[in-house]
Amino acid sequence: MSQAEQLLAALGGWDNIEDLEPCITRLRVELTDDSVVDEAALKQAGAFGVVRVGNAVQVVVGPAADNIAEDMEDLR
């Protein structure tokens, strides 16, 4: 399973993602239901950290954020 697939699964899949935007080092993800997010699985998939802000999650993945977001979009 690719890193993008692992991150996507840990976020609850595309059915749970309302918006995905990469920034320099993070994936900013707006969610339908943030209770299904598996932080341990995100870290196993390579996330350096997870920041929760309301119904959104910021997944810290480092400078590869743009590439990871593209890979996740390809799985849509």
TrEMBL record:
Q: Where in the cell is it found?
A: Cell membrane
* GO molecular-function term, one example from the UniProt record: protein-N(PI)-phosphohistidine-sugar phosphotransferase activity
One Pfam entry name: PTS_EIIB
Report membrane topology: Multi-pass membrane protein
Primary localization: membrane
Which sites are catalytic? Answer: C23 (phosphocysteine intermediate)
What lineage is this protein's organism placed in?
Bacteria, Bacillati, Actinomycetota, Actinomycetes, Actinomycetales
State whether keyword ATP-binding applies: no
Alphabetical list of PROSITE patterns matching this protein? PTS_EIIB_TYPE_1, PTS_EIIB_TYPE_1_CYS
Q: Does the keyword Cell membrane apply?
A: yes
**Keywords, in A-Z order:** Cell membrane, Kinase, Membrane, Phosphotransferase system, Sugar transport, Transferase, Transmembrane, Transmembrane helix, Transport
Cellular compartments per GO CC: plasma membrane
Residue ranges occupied by any PTS EIIB type-1 domain in the UniProt entry:
1-76
What is this protein called in UniProt?
A: PTS sugar transporter
Q: Organism source for this protein?
A: Boudabousia marimammalium
Name the GO terms of the biological process aspect: phosphoenolpyruvate-dependent sugar phosphotransferase system
